[in-house]
Structure formats: structure tokens, C-alpha cells
Amino acid sequence: MPTRIVALDGALDLARTLGPLSRGPGDRTIRLSPGRAWLALRTPEGDGSISFVHGGGTVHCEAWGPGAEWLLDHAPSLIGHGTDRPSLDGPYQLVRDLARRFPGIRIPRTGAVMAALVPAILEQKVTGTSARRAWFALIRSHGSDAPGPVAPRMDRGLRLPPPDRVLAGLPYYAYHPYGVERRRADLIRRVASRAAWFEAAAELPFEAARARLMALPGLGPWTAAEVGVRALGDPDAVSVGDFHLKHLVSWALAGEPRGTDDRMLELLAPYAGHRAHVVRLLELGGPRPPKYGPRLTERRIEAS
Q1: Does pTM top 0.90 for this prediction?
Q2: Predicted confidence (pLDDT) at residue 63 exceeds the cutoff of 90
Q3: Half-sphere exposure in the Cβ direction for 142 (13 Å, CA)
Q4: Which of 78, 126, 165, 242 is deepest in the core (most CB within 10 A)?
């Protein structure tokens, strides 16, 4: 199998760097453990999977399938190698402390826009549990086994997301058993029918890519940011409109239990250009805001 060695330019926390690519326990497109990771992607050159083994100042990469060479060529960006390393020496002591506590956090860039865009659409205005259930069910029903060996401690091998043509061809009601109502189903179908155009966003400057990711009704700043921080390696992506993030940032940086998007952006302004990095640090180690007030409730439509 083809292999590649990436010589690192600083600290790397492999599992936490690739963590945002996982949609939670049960996600069979990725497997993470300390110092090791396995990832399945549909690449421009075909399906593939790649493993990473981090030791010392290098990462050993091995890949399988028609997309193996593409994955190895893009292995450095997949693990955030070569990106700017922000000092984050801003006004907040908490951010400085978290930067020292988690020195190996980087922003990954998969280049796989659809693999980030479809689950982001599924997460619109529903609970994370509901969105994960739908995404995993789509992978189970319409995805395919990834090339390569079974990762350690996996009962079954990695699995690839459904092909774009399949997502585009499913009628809206075929999404209903997965708990996806017609609005999100139709949006996924429209996006999948223009998959090549959306995938090309990975080759655009960040601002142009964000504009493309918001080109269809139903795709807004939140969805664009969720894709940007995973597929595009956008170090400044902030998920404006997120149900929880504004409260996390406001509580962690200002001691305010409830926040707004405007207040969140005001607090993050000193880190312009690297706000995604600050958000990731707060998600990993920041204090959680008090839990009170209205909460997002899960909607179940499977039996309706």
C-alpha cells in the first residue's frame, strides 16, 4: 500500500484535530484514538481510506483504494500541517491558558465539501441526537464499505457516505424514515444535484467559498461555517446562528450566561483571522454556561 511521512512543523494533537470530522460515537466514516486515526473519503480520484500514526515529530500515513494517492498528497492539509500557528496572545487569560493546555490543536482541511455539507444540513434546527441518527442511517443504508483493513477495535470496517447521485435521486419521502422532513430532504437533494459545483468551493478563496456555500435558499452562515471549519480549513469560521455556541463564548469570555451572535462576534473580534481556533479551544476546555431557559427539543417524524 502507498505510504507517506509528514514531518510536522510543531505540536499536533491528532485525535482532537480530526475530532470535528466525527459526528459522534457510531460514526463509521472515521475512527480516532490517541496518536492514531482512520478516515474514509470519496475523493476526486475515487473512494479511499487513510490511516495516520503520530509519533515524535512525524505522522506516518498509509492509504487504500482508488483515492489513495489523492489522500496521501493531501495528508498534510487533512491534519492541519502547514497552516498558520496563531499565538492567541489576546486579551483573555482563559484563551491563553487553553492554547498552552492544548498546543496541538489545528484546523483540518479535507477538501470534501459534500461530506461536511450534507450532515450540516441534517443538523439544521434539530437536536444533535436527531441529526446523528439520520446521518448514520443514511450511511448504513446508502453508503458503502471503504477500501482498506478494519481499524483496531472496530467490529466493522470504515464506511463511505452515500454517493451524491444517490442522495440527489432519492425522493423526499425516502428520507422520512430517517427523521428528515421534506424541507431538509429537498435541500439535500438540490445540493447533491449540484455536488460538483459545491465541491469546487474547496479551490476558492475563503470569502468566495463562503458565498458559494450560501448560494441556495436554506444554506446560511451557520451551514457555511460548519463546512468551512471541516472541508475548507477556514481558521476564521464562526457558526453564527448556533443554538449553543453564543452562550458558550459569552460565558467563557465575559461571564455572561446568555449570549447573542452579535455579542459572541464582539468577544471574538480580537482573534479575527483565527476565531475558529479559539472556538475549538473553548469547546474543548472552556467552562460550560448554566443550563436554564428554553432548550432545543427533538422532533420525531418517522411514524408521522
Answers
A1: yes
A2: yes
A3: 17
A4: 78
